[in-house]
Amino acid sequence: MNNVGSPGPVSLPSGGRKPANVAILFQILALLLSVPALIWGGGCVWDLATSVAPGDIEKSILVLGTWVVSAPIGLAVLAIGLFVKKGSPRLRRMCIIVSLVALSLPIMVNLLFSKAKDIKAQTEIIVQEGGVLTSKPLILMAKTQSGSSHLLFAGHDTGNPPPSILEIYTGPITYSEGFRVNVYMDMEDGDGRTSTKDANLIGSFALPPDDRRRNEATEEDRSVPFPLMVGSAFYKLIQPKKPFSVLLLPVGRAAADPNFRIPVKRIELTAFGGSWGYRFLRALPR
User: Fold this and answer.
1) 175-209 pLDDT, tens per residue?
2) Alpha helices (runs of H) in the chain, residue ranges in sequence order
3) Which of 19, 30, 28, 22 has its CA nearest to residue 79?
4) What is the pLDDT of residue 186?
């Protein structure tokens, strides 16, 4: 017989399962491990998505590196998120989400790399007859009018012109000093006082005194290319169906040196396909 004054059985409210400290530690380590995978994979995606001419061995290394770095780490973090159930539920969800992001990066890199290899560059010679650049400005008239040129007309007609390179080919360079030359589009004259902020200025090229591209005068067939990356400002300076000129203006010491002579052979324009953006082109010495 129970005593009326004695307390009955006491039931404690359930407080839920207490997370295990070891499981939480594994979850935290997994999230920390995912940081380099996300940084590396995200950087590779950005590099491929903003390059105009991927597809070379450097980009192949990026693809391989993403699979080697991001994929294994993503799988390890996913395994911890799925099978370590005694840890924090919030950290578990974070591990699963982060692992899926890390695993998606190699796939994105592969897709971008495959798309980039399909990009084809097109080249046209816009100045066929060159001249000799001295300390005075050299004006070269373009035989190809923009109205009859596929590249020039397309670049002028679109608001988002393709990434392009203007390459100035010179003959053998015997001038022993370094020099710099400004390049202007559609200017009739210019001198050393021409402002570098002029709207017609599209870039400049230079050759240091110790540059290995310098060659001997006997190599008559040797061409030295000087690439300039050009964009929408270049195409806006060209009016459709009208001839245009390219002005080369030496600056600095070369502008006052009577011995400065550089033979200019031709000028070519190369446009790269794809409208998904670009960052820059690294002009490697040839």
Assistant:
1) 888 899 999 987 655 554 555 567 788 888 888 87
2) 21-49, 57-83, 89-117, 150-157, 232-236
3) 30
4) 75
Q: Which CATH number fits domain 121-272: 3.40.1350, 3.80.30, 2.60.120, 3.40.50?
A: 2.60.120
Residue with tokens 């090229």: 205
Instruction: Say if residue 122's pLDDT is above 60.
Output: yes
Residue length of the chain: 286
Sort 32 into a burial class: Cβ within 10 Å, 0-12 / 13-18 / 19+. exposed
Is the pTM of the predicted complex or chain greater than 0.85?
no
Q: How much is the pLDDT for 109?
A: 86
Please say whether the beta carbons of 57 and 94 come within 8 A.
Answer: no
Distance, CA of 90 to CA of 79 (rounded, Å): 16
Helix (H) or strand (E) holding 185: strand 179-185
**Residue whose structure tokens are 């359930």:** 14
What pLDDT sits at residue 174?
Answer: 83
* Site of tokens 């270049």: 234
Q: Which of 141, 137, 240, 126 is nearest to 182 (CA)?
A: 137
116-132 mean pLDDT: 74
Q: CA-to-CA distance for 163 and 50, rounded, in angstroms?
A: 11
The average pLDDT across 105-121 equals: 74
- Nearest-10 crossing angle of helices 21-49, 89-117: 20
Q: Rounded to an integer, what distance in angstroms lies between the CA atom of residue 24 and that of residue 166?
A: 58
